[in-house]
Amino acid sequence: MFGDPGRGKTAAVRMALGDVPPGWKATWVPVPVRPSVAGMRRAVFDALALAGRFPHTSALADAVVAEALGEARVLVVDEAQRLPVPCLEYLQSLWDHPGTRITLVLCGAGSERALSRLPQLASRIGAWQEVPRLTGAEVAAVVTGFHPLWRTVPAPDLTWIDWSCAHGTFRTWAVLSLISMSIHISRCDVTGTGA
Q: Which listed residue, 41, 57, 59, 75, has the most CB atoms within 10 A of its CB?
């Protein structure tokens, strides 16, 4: 999943994970600052919430992680564009391991460029999904599905809001939602009416 910053890549993945087949789990793996293979190994271990202490050798850690990934799981790595080749190779080794049952989702602005540095992993990608800027025709459907606040706003008004300040950027719509909700809550607190 790739596209310019603020386009809604992470939100789109979160929404799509609502349709994960029964029996599958979804796990988000944060990319460490200045990622290394050791840091990614630890991030995967921690994201899986595995019992016990982190193993003292990489071989033991890999064995524990591979065993945990034997159950069907979607492993989401957000900010994947920050991963150097050795970290991508580590993720590939998890995907290639014969005992794992994972779908690997790499998400981030520029993640497609990061994958181009490791063709053997890029060749395994089943689907490349770019998240473009919202078009005027898409705005009403997307924002009303994103937040109930927008469901009562007429479509022409949503188009005007997008044209005047959001410019098709999903992150701006998320911020506008938060601001609008804060204003609504403040009004309720001041008036005490809930209106």
A: 75
Among 160, 143, 162, residue whose Cα is nearest residue 152: 143
Orientation of helix 37-47 relative to helix 58-68, angle to 10° = 40
Q: What does the block give as tokens for 145?
A: 């599905």
- 141 is written with which tokens? 């459907």
pLDDT digits (tens, 9 = 90+) for 97-113: 999 999 999 999 888 88
DSSP H or E run through 75: strand 73-78
pTM above 0.85, yes or no: no
Give, in degrees to the nearest 5, the angle at Cα 58 between 55 and 62.
85
Each residue of 45-72: b (16+ CB within 10 Å) or e? bebbebeeeebeeeeebbebbbebbeee
Q: For residue range 61-84, list pLDDT tens digits in order.
A: 999 999 999 999 999 999 999 999
Residue 108 has which token pair?
Answer: 């981030």
